[in-house]
């Protein structure tokens, strides 16, 4: 963790300063506020001891010394993130409240022109490279390299390259179909954390709001919302147009369960769970059961764990992808503790060891940021935090995952 923390501090330091802003804030007051919230988190109490506690205090002191004068808001955000990332807690987050651009501006030509004439637009961080030369060089990169050319849907073409004399990767807009972006502007920075995982400091494509997301996989030419232009394989994603609760017969001896999430926040989803559980309990009869948890971002264990008893005596084949997270990952590990279970697919998100029971979040004193601390402790899963749960069998991203799983079941039965 110490080496990762040092790398992350260097990563944030390598991001171009926010010269685009003129507004400042009292960053020290915000730092004190978020440190108070961090210290109340179970993850802090479990992890930050001994040398890590010393590192936490040294970082706090160093940051405090840099905050004796008002700090540009975006620079303050980056500094606050340096303190937060010392705790390995992917659920805990700090968001940037103000949005530089909104639909009203985008739909009004005069307001949009005013925005493009502002310092916020003109002085946004830009790549130092000639874009034609950069694109030509990046087009030579292979599929396994993170460097390359990516699409953000049909809206943006982005080139991601290694920054000089740094471990930081930079994503620059090569072509934009969005009015709020122009070629040459930087939209994302990536820092490697563990194995397939990266932390991303990014600018929201729609609002240009700075943000930070942790434990993102690079695999199958995909880095979060960005996909390599040369890779059209998307078989790791959930089957389109499914509901969050799917149960069907695939073959005479294999049934299929899909759980889109385990959220208990809405009354409708709680009812859907009860109806689904009753149906599965009544009709689950096959020897083999595929449990599809692709992109299941988690929820309440009260909606997942009742299925463990139903699956206990089955041959279970779990499917996960890099967006399977939180209780979706915990449920994966609980299933794997049963007999006759195989885990297939892709390594999960790695947002598993902590969580939010009450979902409280707090604006910092400046009003510029919002912190969402964690209050739930699943420390027994700490080894998977920021890394994810890796399947025993990796599936081919270019072929249908259900068909691959059925083939594995057939071979296992023979």
UniProtKB/TrEMBL annotation:
Keywords: Signal
Span of the signal peptide: 1-20
UniProt-recorded name of the protein: Peptidase family S41
Organism: Olleya namhaensis
